[in-house]
Specification:
It is built from six helices and six strands; from the N terminus they run ααααααββββββ. By secondary structure, it is α+β, with helices and mostly antiparallel strands.
Length: 235
């Protein structure tokens, strides 16, 4: 099946659900779309170019480490602007694109993603890939959300050196609470046992992270002075 045929079949199924008074949520639609398209990836692997609105092949995952490197300079700027706009409006950008495709709507300045690269390329893009192009925009491209998995360095709580007795180490953790003046949100996933850093009253974003052993730490200056001390996890 081509991407158009898959899209048409899923759209028909969603319409039938609505007609039967059992409409699916956007999240349920996303899960179904990703599941179907994931099952098609193995059959598409090894194909270098397909016609129409079908995908550009990704037979060799090592060919391009960052999917955004495949875009032209103009496409990359348009794509990053789209992602930032959606994220600032608190709309998951991937769901926006998938909903456009399922409903046959144009995606405007990023229509080229569907026409030239397709869903296989789309699913390759992670926050870590996007973060590498932060310097092309004004400020952080993606804002952290509760539940995001990131890595933090021990430089948050101790002096580290690239060459020295206390070297830099990275630790996996989960974001459990966020205060972000830019989005005017202060959200929390529940009670916290111990915050290792005091809260300060300023306009900088901050978050509480929880390590896998249950310990928690509050990161001040999340997108400012402490930005070098955390990174998105590669998928």
């Amino acid at each position: 099946m081509t991407q158009s045929e898959i899209t048409a079949a899923l759209s028909a199924a969603f319409s039938q659900c609505e007609s039967a008074s059992c409409p699916l949520s956007d999240r349920q639609k996303q899960i179904m779309v990703q599941s179907v398209w994931a099952s098609m990836q193995s059959s598409l692997a090894g194909r270098s170019h397909l016609n129409g609105d079908r995908t550009v092949g990704w037979s060799d995952s090592s060919e391009v480490l960052n999917p955004l490197d495949r875009l032209t300079a103009e496409e990359r700027l348009a794509f990053l602007a789209f992602v930032k706009c959606e994220e600032q409006a608190q709309r998951p950008w991937k769901i926006t694109l998938l909903n456009d495709w399922l409903n046959g709507r144009s995606s405007g300045s990023v229509q080229f993603v569907r026409e030239r690269y397709g869903t296989q390329w789309l699913e390759q893009v992670t926050p870590a890939h996007l973060a590498r192009y932060n310097d092309l925009g004004d400020g952080e491209l993606l804002r952290l959300k509760i539940g995001d998995r990131i890595e933090v360095t021990n430089g948050l709580w101790e002096w580290v050196q690239d060459n020295g007795p206390c070297s830099r180490e990275w630790f996996l953790c989960t974001v459990v609470s966020i205060h972000d003046p830019l989005t005017e949100t202060s959200t929390d996933s529940g009670n916290h046992s111990d915050r290792s850093a005091p809260t300060t009253a300023d306009d900088s974003a901050s978050c509480v992270i929880r390590f896998d052993d249950g310990a928690e730490y509050e990161i001040q200056g999340l997108y400012d002075w402490n930005r070098p001390n955390w990174r998105w996890v590669e998928a």
